[in-house]
Amino acid sequence: MTKTPATVKFGRKAFPFSSFEEVSCMFCEYRDAKNFGASSRYNEITLWAADGSYWGHVSYNGNVWDCAAKDWVSGKKPVYSPYVNA
To answer: Contact, 46 vs 57, CB < 8 A?
Structure first.
């Protein structure tokens, strides 16, 4: 994707962010504060470009993807993973 994400949406709330590490940490703190488990039902955490177009999502484990969850395919690598160099 050529556009850069600028906003993360948690349900109806939107927040600006400056790095994939920041948005991953924001989601993990939100997930832990709400006691979400891996099978909990929660709205997809989405990333949006400055022009308002969809960019990607954050998965339960904090990985950041440049696609919708429904478009993920085996072998695809996240654009950011909190577990790399951890």
So the answer is: yes
Domain range for 62 is 5-71
For residue 56, being part of any structural domain is answered with yes
Contact 47, 57 (CB under 8 A): yes
CA distance 59 to 81: 10
Beta-carbon count within 10 A of 14 CB: 12
Assigned domain for 53 exists: yes
pTM above 0.85, yes or no: no
Element (H, E) at 14: strand 13-16
Total structural domains within the chain: 1
In a domain, 58, yes or no: yes
For the chain, which ranges sit under pLDDT 70?
A: 1-3, 39, 41-43, 85-86
